[in-house]
Amino acid sequence: MAGAALLTGCSDAEDPASDGARGARSASATQRIKARAARDSGDLLDRYEAALAAHPALAARLGPLRDEVARHAKSFGAPARPAAPASPSPSPSASPASEKDTVSALAKAEREIADRRAAALVEAPAELARLLASVAAAGAGHAYLLTED
Fold first, then answer.
1. What three-state secondary structure class fits 21?
2. What is the pLDDT of residues 88-111, one digit of tens each?
3. How much is the pTM?
4. What region does 84 belong to: left with phi over 0, alpha with psi -120 to 50, or beta?
5. Cα–chain-centroid distance for residue 132?
6. Burial 73-107 (b: 16+ CB within 10 A, else e)
7. Cα(105)–Cα(54) distance, rounded to whole angstroms?
């Protein structure tokens, strides 16, 4: 009888219902990871827009990075936004006072999000993992560009 109990423990691998449950968990994890990535990109996009509103002189430096962040957000399923906000309203807490502090805060946010995306790779299915890795690398590149004078 004990041998039969041990054998039944291995039978879940053959159970189609078990495969369905794994598939549902995988789909749920994928949705959760994509939602987080879309939210992170949207939040980062808001920070870029606040920085540009507070410091229009940074447009040449920050504009291309902002546009790329917008493309990243869209790739994760966030709603598309216009390339340049019509009349951005700066949020006092979103953008530090000086240009240098603003750029430094953006670099820090880019690094943090890139690190979160890299950590999410272990849970993501292959296609999403490739997207996360690519966008994390782009974010790390943005952080580097933002710290260069």
1. helix
2. 444 444 445 799 999 999 999 999
3. 0.75
4. beta
5. 7
6. beebebeebeeeeeebeeeeebbbeebeebbebbb
7. 13
